[in-house]
Amino acid sequence: MTTVEWPVWKKKPAEMGRLTDMLPERFNQWQLFSTGAAVFLPRDHLLAAEGLVHGTRLAESVLVGAFEPDALPERILSQIVRQLGRRPSTPHRASSWETSLQLVRTGLGLGLGLSCWPTPTELVARGLADPVADYEVVVKTIAGRPQSRAVAAFVKLARASAWTNSADGS
Question: Prior bond to 131 cis, omega within 30?
Fold first, then answer.
């Protein structure tokens, strides 16, 4: 299972990965839920009628990539590449989820993300049947570090909530 972190401190993703790898005992961690990968596409797209999309169905599709090689869309894309033996077309890259959604809205490609991510009304999210990868969504804080009231409230809410995957209710 792959972990998707919601860190509550400001660090660049690459720095966050190094911190997580080097100092795991210094973190408090709470699992929120597990979820799967999804493809985000316009409602009128051919694949929108499918319940789950198989990676092979994306072979001829144009996908939106990410600038950072460790970004979640790129990790999902690498699983698809391993399955297909080649990389689908990714002529456009986004630096944020919002930019990725804008590219999908304008018809420049299909987005890759988690099935729990909010989906605008003009788009749909379809789970990826394969490659199968579950992602564990967690909140992490640095142990012993003072937190702002906003961070403390978020952590309290995250720990107290009964989280579900909004796409499939699990």
Answer: yes
Q: What is the percent of the chain where pLDDT is above 90?
A: 28
Name 50's bridge partners.
none
* Under 8 Å between Cβ of 80 and 23: no
Rounded Cα gap, residues 56 and 83, in angstroms: 8
pTM of the full predicted structure? Answer: 0.72
Question: What does the block give as tokens for 170?
Answer: 């699990």
Residue 108 pLDDT: 94
Is residue 61 within 8 Å of 110, Cβ to Cβ?
yes
Interacting residues of 80 by C-beta distance below 8 A, sequence separation 6+? 55, 58, 63, 88, 131
- Cβ-based neighbours of 22, under 8 Å, separated by 6 or more: none
CA–CA dist 162, 80 (Å, integer): 32
Q: How far is CA 5 from the centre of its chain?
A: 10
**Locate tokens 């966050």: which residue?**
16
pLDDT per position as a tens digit, 87-145: 899 999 999 889 999 999 999 999 999 888 889 999 999 999 876 667 887 888 888 88
Asked whether the beta carbons of 83 and 131 are under 8 A apart, the reply is: yes
DSSP letter for 114, please: E
Measured between alpha carbons, how far is 90 from 22 in angstroms, rounded to an integer?
33
